[in-house]
Design the sequence.
């Protein structure tokens, strides 16, 4: 961290840790206090014609994009090199697959945002925090499109694995490599900064439904029985109903 | 043998006058909140008609309930678990608000705020979803009393499924029209497909009384319960993003009180009682290959509480003694299994529903009378059952997956009771006897008492949940909250009356009933009473009641 300015340390080392702390503590708090508000907030009942396309396209393309981020950021460049993938080959592959993903996400979010804005019934269900996270995601996705498609597929390309990825992994190693990220292009820096904002906002938005992906449904028995087992009453103030304002306009 | 108890309802459709009191009181109790405007835990449909939501009975369209796969195994009609998870981002089978109706109210303030003038101000419809003006085109009660039937009623899935010659008999012109009411609540099925469809595992069936509930804290709004229920009795609260459904008024049931819809039923057509069943047999019964045999298969699942072997085993498995006693007195067991006049609604969905119906006989009697016959003559009545303006096949499509046998048998038993009682009242010799329809005189007497006398304490035999469990039940009570706690309600702002401790309620003390004709209990409810030891009945038995 030698030679980094105070601002750089604050921006690229302190903020990420603060965001992660908010992420973890926020989720614990929300899970404990707001089970009732923990939902997908689906608007399929109100509108289905656009959701039929927008919902699946957005989510599946997002899975692709998340996979791309895992490969590009968590897997060190040396590993892919070790299995014989050279940097140009990797970049070409990442830019092409990434473009498929980001175009899908873009189309999906455009449909979803469109119906949220123009379909009155859906707009009426939208709370301020929904607008906040939606705009944040829109900007983040457009930036992602610019980096993946404009810079890496059509443009000269940028080897973010030498800077952004190195810095990101160093955060989890406990010794933030501020230099690495500080030298990255502004486009990448804004994308990353907004990402921390999303991470910090995550537990307070409807995005929490991502952690409830019901994968175990595949294995559980069909009919669930419950007996009157001794359930302790909720601690005062933690019944969940008090906190339902989160994500819900009442 | 795994013995379980289930609270069960039977509705006598002959008595339903379509007043919607059950729907109104249910709504006031459970769904008078933002987000549940369109939700009717209880609704009353006019049949023939499309129902609510429109055409919900057509499972080729909605894919609710269960079906058998190629190997004859039970599987959800909507497809495999994997298919569900893959299509979770837009549930293809979910009805939209148009299939129910866009909820609305009126801008009543305009009546006051309209500028002075010669014209009387009028109010316009305002959508509860958007606040904008709207034009209602469909609703829960749109087809009441066959409104719009000439245009729509022939699309009733039960008519569409009729064979051609039977369908031709369905007439919708004014002269020969036919209708009856069908009140519907959640069926609290033995094999609930909504529970099986819930990806979160938030829905469950209570082990003690079989009531199916949604855990509001665990529901994540994936919506598959809504589409998985073939009766469309799970609803999506559009404000909270969670599923809600008929609770069988569990706080009342636990206290030994009937549900709100039963308590307030003007026609007194609802019966509540326990059914004992063998949980190990449910899946095999639901997988019966011939849909028309599902009714019989479900009867096989029920256990006779008077069978000493069943009673012994039930006590061994922990079913409380007073619950067993209640099961023996259960009016629903009597109507379903002992006298076999009640039938399940759409057994072909394979969910093993637990709200059963006594098919309507009145229209048959009307037909006989209109044709100039004396409906006391059993032969005429029996003949008329087959000559219904709406064919028995229609009722069979509702209640027995198309098998007319059980419907006909039930109607004949009802006709027999009516015929014998009429002869008795007029001092004539009855033209038919209980034996003609396969009943003993004792059974016929019991059936008469259940259907015609139908006293409060005979209609509702609900054993209270055990007091020692009361504290534990609190956690489940927490789901319900107070319906006044909506925005601006008295429960929120402190404008409402102070909440008082719930005063102790007392059920009618059965032991204190004297031979008076009418009495007022300590809750102010007026009861018409019949003497405890009535004169010998028409079937020659003195006061042979249900528990005799």
Sequence:
């Amino acid at each position: 961290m030698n030679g980094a300015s105070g601002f750089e340390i604050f921006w690229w080392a302190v903020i990420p840790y603060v965001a992660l702390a908010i992420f973890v503590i926020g989720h614990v708090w929300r899970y404990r206090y707001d089970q009732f508000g923990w939902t997908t907030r689906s608007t399929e009942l109100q509108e289905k014609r656009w959701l039929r396309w927008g919902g699946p396209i957005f989510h599946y393309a997002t899975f692709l994009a998340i996979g791309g981020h895992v490969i590009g950021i968590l897997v060190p460049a040396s590993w892919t090199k070790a299995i014989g993938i050279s940097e140009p080959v990797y970049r070409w592959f990442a830019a092409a697959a990434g473009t498929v993903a980001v175009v899908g996400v873009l189309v999906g979010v455009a449909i979803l945002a469109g119906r949220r804005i123009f379909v009155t019934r859906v707009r009426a269900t939208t709370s301020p925090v929904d607008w906040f996270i939606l705009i944040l995601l829109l900007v983040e996705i457009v930036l992602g499109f610019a980096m993946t498609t404009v810079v890496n597929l059509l443009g000269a390309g940028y080897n973010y694995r030498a800077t952004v990825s190195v810095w990101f992994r160093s955060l989890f190693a406990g010794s933030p490599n501020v230099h690495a990220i500080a030298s990255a292009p502004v486009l990448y820096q804004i994308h990353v900064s907004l990402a921390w904002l999303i991470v910090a906002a995550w537990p307070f938005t409807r995005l929490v439904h991502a952690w409830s992906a019901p994968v175990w449904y595949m294995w559980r028995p069909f009919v669930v029985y419950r007996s009157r087992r001794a359930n302790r009453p909720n601690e005062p103030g933690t019944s969940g109903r008090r906190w339902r304002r989160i994500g819900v306009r009442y | 043998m795994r013995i379980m108890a289930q609270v069960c309802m039977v509705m006598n459709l002959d008595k339903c006058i379509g007043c919607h009191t059950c729907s109104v009181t249910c709504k006031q109790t459970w769904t008078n909140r933002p987000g549940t405007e369109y939700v009717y835990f209880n609704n009353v449909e006019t049949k023939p008609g499309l129902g609510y939501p429109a055409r919900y009975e057509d499972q080729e369209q909605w894919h609710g309930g269960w079906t058998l796969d190629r190997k004859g195994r039970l599987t959800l009609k909507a497809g495999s678990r994997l298919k569900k998870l893959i299509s979770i981002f837009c549930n293809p089978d979910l009805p939209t608000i148009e299939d129910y109706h866009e909820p609305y109210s009126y801008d009543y303030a305009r009546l006051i705020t309209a500028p002075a003038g010669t014209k009387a101000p009028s109010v316009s419809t305002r959508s509860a979803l958007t606040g904008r003006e709207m034009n209602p085109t469909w609703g829960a009660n749109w087809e009441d009393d066959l409104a719009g039937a000439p245009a729509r009623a022939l699309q009733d899935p039960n008519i569409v499924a009729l064979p051609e010659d039977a369908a031709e008999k369905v007439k919708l012109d004014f002269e020969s029209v036919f209708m009856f009411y069908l009140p519907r609540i959640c069926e609290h099925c033995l094999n609930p497909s909504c529970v099986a469809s819930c990806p979160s595992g938030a829905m469950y069936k209570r082990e003690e009384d079989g009531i199916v509930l949604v855990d509001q804290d665990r529901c994540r709004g994936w919506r598959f319960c809504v589409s998985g229920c073939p009766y469309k009795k799970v609803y999506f609260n559009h404000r909270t993003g969670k599923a809600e459904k008929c609770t069988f008024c569990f706080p009342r049931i636990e206290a030994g009180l009937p549900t709100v819809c039963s308590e307030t039923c003007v026609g007194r057509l609802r019966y509540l009682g326990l059914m004992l069943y063998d949980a190990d047999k449910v899946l095999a019964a639901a997988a019966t290959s011939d849909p028309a045999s599902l009714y019989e298969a479900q009867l096989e699942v029920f256990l006779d509480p008077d069978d000493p072997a069943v009673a012994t085993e039930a006590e061994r498995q922990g079913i409380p003694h007073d619950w067993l006693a209640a099961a023996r007195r259960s009016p629903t067991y009597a109507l379903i299994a002992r006298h076999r006049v009640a039938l399940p609604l759409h057994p072909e969905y394979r969910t093993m529903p637990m709200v059963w119906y006594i098919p309507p006989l009145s229209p048959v009697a009307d037909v006989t009378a209109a044709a100039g016959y004396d409906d006391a003559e059993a032969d005429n009545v029996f003949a008329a059952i087959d000559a219904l303006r709406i064919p028995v096949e229609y009722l069979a499509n509702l209640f027995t997956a198309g098998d007319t046998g059980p419907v006909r048998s039930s109607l004949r038993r009802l006709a027999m009771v009516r015929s014998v009682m009429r002869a008795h009242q007029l001092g004539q010799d009855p033209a038919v006897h209980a034996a003609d329809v396969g009943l003993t005189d004792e059974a016929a007497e019991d059936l008469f008492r259940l259907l015609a006398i139908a006293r409060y304490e005979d209609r509702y035999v609900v054993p209270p949940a055990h007091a020692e469990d009361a504290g534990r039940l609190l956690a489940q009570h927490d789901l319900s909250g107070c319906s006044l706690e909506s925005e601006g309600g008295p429960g929120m702002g402190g404008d409402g009356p102070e909440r008082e401790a719930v005063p102790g309620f007392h059920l009618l003390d059965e032991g204190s009933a004297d031979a008076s004709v009418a009495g007022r209990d300590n809750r102010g409810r007026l009861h018409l009473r019949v003497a405890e030891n009535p004169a010998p009945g028409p079937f020659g038995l003195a006061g042979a009641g249900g528990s005799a």
In short: The beta strands of chain A are 225-226. Chain A has a mean pLDDT of 90. Chain A has one domain: 6-230.
